[in-house]
Design brief:
Layout: E1 3-6, H1 8-24, E2 28-32, H2 40-48, E3 53-56, H3 59-68, E4 73-76, H4 85-91, E5 94-97, H5 100-113, E6 117-122, H6 137-144, E7 150-156, H7 169-186, E8 192-196, H8 201-205, E9 215-218, H9 220-224, E10 226-227, E11 232-233, E12 242-255, E13 281-287, E14 299-300, E15 306-310, E16 315-320, E17 331-336, H10 338-345, E18 351-354
Parallel strand pairs: 1-18, 2-3, 2-9, 3-4, 4-5, 5-6, 6-7, 7-8, 8-9
Antiparallel strand pairs: 1-12, 10-11, 12-13, 12-17, 13-16, 14-17, 15-16
Helix pairs in contact: 4-5, 6-7
Length: 355
C-alpha cells in the first residue's frame, strides 16, 4: 500500500520560519489546513505547533479541529452554501463572505444559536474568483454592518487562485484604501486587512507590503516552502515536508513502444509512436498508485526514470536498464506539487504516516 510521510521536524521548522517572519513585521496569520483533508493525525500535529487560528474550506474539517481543541479560532474560507449555514455558525468562528443573502442567513442563524459570528468581506481585486466589486463595497457594507450577531472584522482578497493574477503593492494599497473609506464613512473599526495567501509572502520578504495589511492566510508555503513568484523554494525552508512512497508491484523488461493497433486509452489519450523506438527494450516498473490517487504531472522525483503514464490504479515507469537495481516489493519516493498532495490526502487508499 502506498503511503505519505509527514516529517514533523520539517513542518515545525517551516512553521517557526514563518512565525518569525510575521512577528518581525507585526502581522497576524492563520494556517490553512484544507490540504490535510481533516486527517486527525496531521491536524493534531498542526495544532501542536502552537497556532491559534486555522482556516479550512470544509466544515467537517473545522468540526474535527474544534473537537481536538475548541479554543482554536476557526475560519471558513469560502462563501457559504445555504444548506451549510447552521454548521458554519456552529463550527466556524469566522467566515469569508461576499453576498448579502448569505450574510442575512448567517445573522439569522447566529441569533438562533445565540452566538456572535465574525465576518471578513472579500473584495474583488482582479483574479475574478470570489469578491465584492470595489465600486459596490461601500453600499454592500452599509447593508450588512448592522446585521445582528455579525461582527465585520476584516476586508480580504484572494489572488492567483483562478486566473493567475499576481499580488502587487498597488492591489494591496487599494485594499487598504477601502478600509480607510469605510472606517471614515461609518465610524467603524475594521481590525483585519487580510492581504492574501502564500503567493503574497515574496512581497513581504521584499518589504513591499503596504501599511495597513496586517493578516495572512498561509497553506502552501508552510507545507512546501514555496516562493510562488519565482516557483522555487524559499531559502531556509523545506520543500519536502511531505513524501509519497509507492510500492513496486512489477518489474519486467518490455518493448519501449506498444504492439498492435492503437486507439484512445480510457483517459482519451492517443499515443504517437516514434519509429526510432521500434525494436528497443527497457525495464518497466508498475507502482501501486494511479489516477484515482494523483495525476502524474504533480509528482516530482530526482531518480533516473521516466513516468510513462498511468491507469486508474497503476503508475508505469520506464527504468531504462534499471541500473539503480529496483526490485519488486521495494518502494520509490516522490515529492509532490501542492495539488498532487491534496489529491493524495483526499484518497482513502493512501496511508498517512507521521515521522
Amino acid at each position: 500500500m502506498a503511503y505519505i510521510n509527514l516529517y514533523r521536524d520539517k513542518l515545525k521548522h517551516n512553521f517557526e520560519f514563518l512565525q518569525t517572519l510575521f512577528q518581525q513585521h507585526g502581522l497576524e496569520w492563520g494556517i490553512v489546513s484544507k490540504m490535510l483533508c481533516g486527517n486527525p493525525l496531521y491536524l493534531k500535529e498542526l495544532i501542536s505547533l502552537g497556532i491559534n487560528e486555522i482556516h479550512d474550506s470544509r466544515i467537517s474539517n473545522l468540526k474535527a479541529i474544534k473537537k481536538l481543541n475548541p479554543n482554536i479560532q476557526t475560519v471558513y474560507i469560502k462563501p457559504a452554501a445555504k444548506r451549510s449555514i447552521p454548521q458554519i455558525i456552529q463550527y466556524a468562528d469566522v467566515s469569508l463572505n461576499t453576498e448579502y443573502f448569505t450574510m442575512k442567513m448567517l445573522s439569522d442563524e447566529a441569533v438562533k444559536q445565540n452566538k456572535e459570528h465574525k465576518v471578513i468581506i472579500m473584495v474583488e481585486t482582479g483574479d475574478l474568483r470570489e469578491g465584492v466589486m470595489g465600486d459596490h463595497l461601500v453600499d454592500f457594507y452599509a447593508k450588512v454592518f448592522e446585521l445582528p450577531n455579525l461582527q465585520i472584522i476584516g476586508l480580504g482578497t484572494n489572488l492567483n487562485c483562478l486566473h493567475g493574477v499576481m499580488p502587487s503593492q498597488d492591489k494591496l494599497i487599494q485594499l487598504s484604501l477601502y478600509k480607510q473609506i469605510i472606517e471614515l464613512k461609518f465610524n467603524k473599526k475594521i481590525p483585519w486587512i487580510s492581504g492574501g495567501t502564500s503567493v503574497t509572502i515574496p512581497l513581504l520578504m521584499r518589504h513591499q507590503i503596504p501599511q495597513g495589511i496586517n493578516h495572512f492566510r498561509i497553506g502552501e508555503t508552510l507545507y512546501f516552502g514555496a516562493d510562488l513568484f519565482e516557483e522555487k523554494t524559499i531559502e531556509g525552508m523545506h520543500a519536502d515536508v511531505f513524501e509519497l512512497h509507492a510500492e513496486i508491484i512489477e518489474i519486467t523488461e518490455k518493448p519501449t513502444v506498444p504492439i498492435g493497433e492503437l486507439a484512445a486509452n480510457p483517459q482519451g489519450e492517443l499515443m504517437e509512436i516514434d519509429p526510432n523506438e521500434f525494436g528497443k527494450m527497457s525495464y518497466r516498473a508498475i507502482l501501486d498508485i494511479g489516477l484515482l490517487d494523483i495525476d502524474p504531472k504533480y509528482l516530482i522525483s530526482d531518480y533516473p526514470f521516466d513516468i510513462v503514464g498511468a491507469s486508474s490504479d497503476m503508475l508505469v515507469l520506464d527504468l531504462g536498464k534499471n541500473e539503480t537495481g529496483y526490485k519488486v516489493g521495494g518502494t520509490i519516493p516522490f515529492h509532490m506539487k501542492y495539488m498532487g498532495a491534496l489529491s493524495l490526502m483526499n484518497s482513502n487508499y493512501i496511508e498517512k504516516r507521521l515521522v
